[in-house]
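Our consortium's second objective concerns turning raw sequence data into structural hypotheses that experimental partners can test. To show how far this objective has progressed, the report includes one record in full. It was chosen at random from the queue rather than selected for favorable results. The single chain below, 312 residues long, was entered without modification.
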Amino acid sequence: MLNERQKEAAKAIVNIFETGSARGDYARVTLLAGDNGHLTYGRAQTTLGSGNLHLLIKAYIASPHALHARALQPYLQRLADIELRLDTDWTFRNLLKEAGADPAMQDTQDAFFDRVYWTPAVAAAEKLGLGEALSAAVVYDSAVHGSWSAMRDRTVAKVGLPGKAGARKWTQTYVSERRAWLAGHANGLLRKTVYRMDVFAALAAAGNWSLALPMTVRGIRIDEEVLDMPAPAPVPVSADDTGTRALRLTEPRMTGNDVRALQAALVREGYALNGDGVFGENLEKALKSFQREFGLVDDGVAGTATRLMLGI
């Protein structure tokens, strides 16, 4: 089990990757040309394109002390619809920046990123037998950045499961495979993010599997007081594939291979579903039941947290 210092060190590393600050920048709004995630926001840069920005703002509006709830309320449906015109809606973007200074938003982001990224990532790591802090940080980074499942499967295809290869060797192979994937990606922005894997490779080479402090990441010293120093500009581009979407009950119904993958994952968990690739009422019911069983918000939306817990 990770102690609190290790958890915060792992989060600080990813905060630096995403916003250039160990504590994270709650007001950071980013839009990079060519980023499949489109508009990104907050401490761990959640994206419009994934549907997670909608979930974050929805949670903030529900906070009883949210100062900007009324102003952001009209944007909820547009966020749910992943309306890409929000990328350049400057009124909306300025509202997000202002809300980032609200303690209620900061509390919401902390709870949201833990629920959607950190807790499922640690569970995914432990399920594979990756119990050390550095391995958990690697999985968490991929959960935030995107494409964890694809890179996990690529690593398993090369060296097998961690139980066969050994947890440390598996983690190092994963880092190497992910770096090669990023370096050769068709998206030039993603090629610039290989520094993420270089940091993890350096920590592994130094034997810092426990994430012992102090350490320096991208020119920023992480110690007990998380002292910030100038860092090279991060590249907060999402590594989620273009087709990755939050699956939910809609009209007309969502269909496709991603829906089939969700159905198949729930069947593996013991739910009786067909594999027709159509998101209907029975799939929503099974999904909500799974979410309740694993302590997730039972909203019937297969987003990042649910996908991580299902291994898809």
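The partners drew two points from this record. DSSP finds 15 helices and five strands in the chain. The chain has two domains: 4-222, 257-310. Both points have been shared with the crystallography group to help prioritize constructs.
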